[in-house]
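re: ur question from earlier - yeah i can do the single chain one, its not a big deal. heres the input i used so u can compare w yours
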Amino acid sequence: MQDFQKSGGVAGTRYSGQTMGFSPTTPQQDASIPSSDLVTIRTSSGLKALVNKAYAPNFQGFINDLEGTGYKIKTLLGYSDRNNVNNPSVKSYHALGAAIDINPENNPNRSTQTDLPPETSQIAAKW
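and the output i got, formated as tokens:
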């Protein structure tokens, strides 16, 4: 993933229109992940998302700490075998299980609009 200067983050998390965290690899058009490498992460309210098991502890820690601020996660999206919406010639990080979207309706891709708390950068940098 890209640098996490002002947005901080967990692999693939979107915040203020920026991808946060680190990049496991650059997705290729033929990128795929075996289903055995996918595991479930959960919010405290029981929402679930599949992610690559290599990144699951980071995603889960981020979600736990984010919810610890009082932030309510209403939508949690993870693995999806799809192309990148911003560059359709390559697979999305979601296709590697290396990205999550949290409340995308309030934190849209390619936008500075966000409802995430101000401390999201610090939480994400931790994970």
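The helical segments are 56-68, 120-126. not sure if urs matches, ping me
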